[in-house]
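#struct-help
A.M.: can someone run this one for me? Single chain, 188 residues.
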Amino acid sequence: MKDIQLPSPQITGGMPLMDALSKRASFRSFSPKELDKQQLSNLLWAAFGFRCEKRRTAPSSHNRQEIELYVCLPSGVYIYDAIDNVLRAHCEGDFRVATGSQDYVWTAPVNVIMVSDTAKIKGKTEQGIIETIYANTGFISENIYLFCTSEGLSSVTRALIDKEQLSKILGLAPTQVITLIHTVGYAL
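D.P.: on it. Structure tokens below:
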């Protein structure tokens, strides 16, 4: 398994925001048709890419940028490197079944796993950390929904996950927390 270099994201165009907001929906039926590299690049940039040197497309509290995107494809799990626009090879094999109990996750071509590293959040109570990571996850999640709507792709966000099992598969540290997963693909 090798890293996947993504093409530069296309950061202009798309559906007008108000149209995307009015059409945004969750879908639970996906074709196995894979997204091409350009679509993956655009999706991940919209989710949490860099729009300028140190600022991302989704805000994060105090610009901590504690969330990483793990991208589960049929070939394996990759970590999105937003600086170099590369999917870094992480785990070889088809782990889509581990991303949820819903049958549609097993055939959808992409599952974006949002992982927050709580070690990057200092000076907050445990409750403050929880509020921060889930707020930041929500910003990214909405970006994914709006991008998918704009591009004619389907998506659904999910929290019903065996986080312990998936954390083991991903080799996460105790400070890393799976917050949400977005299933992305084409509707059936």
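A.M.: thanks! Strands lie at 4-5, 30-31, 67-73, 76-81, 86-92, 110-117, 154-158, 176-187.
D.P.: also worth noting: The chain has one domain: 4-186.
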